[in-house]
User: What shape does this take?
Amino acid sequence: MIKAVRGTRDILPPDSALFQFVEAQAREVFRLYNFQEVRTPIFEDTQLFSRSVGEETDIVGKEMFTWEDKARAQSEKAQSLTLRPENTAGVVRAYIEHGLGDKGQLQKLYYMGPQFRRERPQKGRYRQFYQIGAEVIGPASAGSESPARDAEVIEMLAMLLDRVGIKGWTLLLNSVGCANDRGKYNEALRAALKDVVGQMCADCQRRAETNPLRVLDCKVPEDQPTIEKLPKISEYLDEPCRENFAEVKKILDAVGVKYELNERMVRGLDYYTRTTFEFTHGGLGAQSALLGGGRYDGLSEMLGGPKAPGIGFALGLDRFVLALQSEASGAQVQSAVSAYIAPLGAGMNAAAAKLARELRAQGVALELGDESFRLKKSFEAAERTGAKFVVIVGENEVKADTFAVKDIKSGEQKTIPRSELAKTLGGR
Assistant: This one.
C-alpha cells in the first residue's frame, strides 16, 4: 500500500474546514487593509534563497529540497532549482521582475500556499506545510520605510487572531537595527563567544565564526545560559534605529496592541532589519511560535533590484490550526450545509434534484438524499452532515408545491410554499 511520504499529510474533513475558515478570515482582513493576492511559483532558482535567506541559516544549510534541472538543452549548464522554503523572497523577486516599483506606489501583497523544508517531522511541523503571508514593499517615497507600516502590519495580525478566536497570544517585539548596527553587534558577539563557544553545540561553534547573530537562533537547552549572557542588540542600535523602534512602539500603544520586548529574538532569516516580531501561543507547547515577521529594507537590492524597503510576515497554517483547536471557544466551525433534501418514495429523486438545483441557485448549501432511504435513515444522514433543516419531498408535497421543513435541533416542523423555501433555509 502506497502511503503519504514522511513529513507530508492529507488534510481531511473536518480539519480542512478549519483551514478554509482561517483562509477566509485572512482574506477578509487583508481586504480591510487593502492587500491584494500574489501567486508565485512553487519552485525557484536556488540562488534566490541562498542570496536572500542566508547561507548560514538552517533553512539554506540543512532544510531545502534542491535538485539540478536536467531538462534543459545539452549546451546549457544545468540550473539548480529549489522548492520554496519561504515566500518573501519569491514575492520580492516578482516585485523586481515585473517592475512593480515603477508605479511609485506602495505594494501591499498577500499569498497563501504550500512551502517545503526538510525538517524533522513532529506535531505541527511538516516537510510540506502551508503558509499565509503578506508583504508591504515599495519606494521610500511611497512611505515604505515608515514605522507606521510596521505597526499597521502587526496591528492587522492582532485583528486576525482575535477574529478567528485565538485569544491567548503574546506579541514579542525587537529591533535588529540596520546593516551597520548588525556589523558592530556581530563583532561584539564574536568577541564575547571567543572563550565560551567551545562548550556550545557544533552548530554554534560554526556560526560563531561565519555569522555570530545566528547563535541566538540556537534551540539547544544547554546553550541557553551562555546565550543569555551575550551582549544585547539594543546596546548597538544607532539613533535613527532607536527612534524608528520607539515610533513603532508608540503606535502600537496608541492602538492598544500589547507587546513584550525580547532582545534575543532575531528571527531565522538573514534579510531582516530593524523591526522583528513574533506572536506566540501557549497551546503550541515548548515551541510556541505562531507566526512572525519583520522588516527587510535591503532585500530588493540584495536580489539585484531597486531600493525598495519592505516589511512582511508569515503564518504557519498547520500550527495556527493547532492553536485554534486548543482554544476552548474556538475550533468549532459550523457546517456549511443548511438543509438536507429527503426524497420520500419511489420516483422522487428527479423532483428532489430539481428542487435542490433551484435552492442552490438561490444560495442554499444543501445535501441531497436518495428515494431508497426510509425517512428515519434520511434524518440520520441529515444529522451527520450537520444540516439545520430537513426538507421532505414526497408525492403530495410535489403536487401541492409546498414542502414539510423540519428544524433538526428544535424538532419543529412547518409547511413552506416553494416560493418561500429558499428564504426559510437561509438563502436569498
Q: What stands out?
A: The two ends are 47 Å apart (CA to CA). The chain has a mean pLDDT of 90. The chain has 15 helices and 16 strands. The longest strand covers residues 107-116.
